[in-house]
Amino acid sequence: MSDTADRVKKIVVEHLGVEADKVTEDASFIDDLGADSLDIVELVMAFEEEFGVEIPDDAAEKISTVSDAIKYIDENKG
Amino acid sequence: MRRVVVTGLGLVTPLGADVETTWKNILASKSGAGPITKFDASDQKCQVACEVKPADHEYGFDANKRVDHKIQRQVDPFIVFGIDAAGQAIEDAGLEDMDEATKLRAGCSIGSGIGGLPGIESESLVLANRGPGRVSPHFVHGRLINLISGQVSIKYGLKGPNHAVVTACSTGAHSIGDAARMIRDDDADIMLAGGAESTICPIGIAGFAQARALNCSYNDRPEQASRPYDKDRDGFIMGEGAGVVVLEEYEHAKARGAKIYAEVVGYGLSGDAYHVTAPDPEMDGAFRSMSAALRKAGMTPADIDYINAHGTSTMADTLELGAVRRLFGEAMENVSMSSTKSAIGHLLGGAGAVEAIFCILALRDQIVPPTLNLDNPDEGCEGADLVPHTPRKREVRAVLNNSFGFGGTNASLIMRKAD
Predict the structure, then answer these.
(1) How far apart are CA B370 and CA B28, in angstroms?
(2) Which Gene3D superfamilies does this UniProt record tie to the protein (chain B) (predicted)?
């Protein structure tokens, strides 16, 4: 598992208060992890903070699973 | 007319995270005051408060018991306290498993005086230092006063009236009074009613200190700082926490065999129309509020055995006592009056609800709670039974609870044992 994946999962566990083993890479934030749209806004802010990337709104809208987040971060971090 | 009774209680206070622990500590004459620990208060004029204790304390509060982790992260502490106290009240009333028809007739009226001040303070700093793009998406609904009622209704599926009073330090009493009227007027059969507050944060303490409302001269003696009616009182001490009751229509409560603590029989409201922070020297607003509650209850002062005073430990204490004296006349000889703010500080929007619960427990246990630190009663206290230092066993048939708030807003509740 990549370093990005570990750090993303840690943020998801902390923000959504879910069990770590539920945060699989294909887990959907809304369907599997109980997030609502504002929780995703908050998660995206936390990813930006953690990885020093900027995730514009149109990109954030396409992030619906844990792997979407990991992929975007890996492709865009400096 | 539909009668309204109390069938469940919930408390989060500086003296306990539940009703019985808080009451036991109140009757043991304990003080919830101490040096402020929530932030570095060394540059504040007032460095003392009555904080709700952390989970590892003997009578501390564990938010994880009734509030989801995610919600705890998103909302201000006053909402967390309110959700927990409401949960306690629901459990106490045996209403955890309401059917759909019952939920449609069950509502919430849980308010706050100020709301999410700590979060407004901290997110304002985020805005100033890091820009609008870093402000939390949960900022607004994590701070709004009506979000205790909102969160509680979602958690328990309560689909009746969803209301939240904002009348400064009268909030808790108005919340219960308004909710009782909603039941009486057939809007609901069950109402969760009360108030919560948590504003022990730098701007909260500084704001009240600058308004000359806090006692800033007892920083080295926190437990003695809240001293209603005492000659050396010099302002209130801020408390925090929540009080929520389950109000229920009498026949509804009887039909399901609920435990009935008390009946809400009188509710009076008035405005001072005098000054935003200072009390009317004649306390005419307080007099009219108490008079209205008595009239609604069909009672005379001689029927009241205990008054839980507003008594914040300011100059207004003796003014309130003067209004009580004017209303009660000869009945002063029988009535006991105390201020439990001496023990838990001033819970602002939570005060009226927490104190209403103390009144209900006084009815249940036939004992009146004390006024701590009343070493030298001020002029004007002569002949009044202010229950100094220790509680007193006595007959308690009916109780009067007073709450007065900034803006000149007054509320009085009368409760008695239900037959």
Answers:
(1) 9
(2) 3.40.47.10
3-state secondary structure (DSSP) of residue A8: helix
Is B69's Cβ below 8 Å from some Cβ in A? yes
Q: Is the pLDDT of residue B419 over 90?
A: no
Instruction: Tally the C-alpha atoms within 13 A of residue B329's C-alpha that lie toward its C-beta.
Output: 6
Match 């919600």 to its residue by tokens. B71
Mean pLDDT of B100-113: 98
Closest CA to B106 of B155, B35, B58, B170: B155
Count H helices and E strands in chain B, helices first.
13, 14
Average per-residue pLDDT in chain A? 93
pTM of the full structure = 0.96
> What interface predicted TM-score (ipTM) does this complex get?
0.87
B132 touches chain A (CB under 8 A): no
Closest CA to B307 of B351, B337, B265, B267: B337
For residue A49, the chain B residue with the least C-alpha distance is B134
Q: Count A/B contacts: CB-CB distance under 8 Å.
A: 19
Interstrand relation of B48-49 and B4-12 (parallel, antiparallel or unpaired):
unpaired
**pLDDT tens digits, one per residue of B212-238:** 999 999 999 999 999 999 999 999 999
Q: What angle (nearest 5°) sits at the alpha carbon of residue A50, between those of residues A48 and A55? A: 15
Considering only CB atoms, which chain A residues are within 8 Å of B73?
15, 17
Domains and CATH numbers, chain A: 1-77 (1.10.1200.10)
Q: CB–CB of A15 and B134 under 8 A?
A: no
Instruction: With CA atoms as reference, report the closest residue to A46 among A1, A4, A8, A5.
Output: A8
What's the CA dihedral at B345, B348, B353, B359 to 10 degrees?
40
Known catalytic membership, residue A26: no
Which tens digits make up the pLDDT trace of A18-41?
999 999 999 999 999 999 999 999
User: What pLDDT does B276 receive?
Assistant: 94
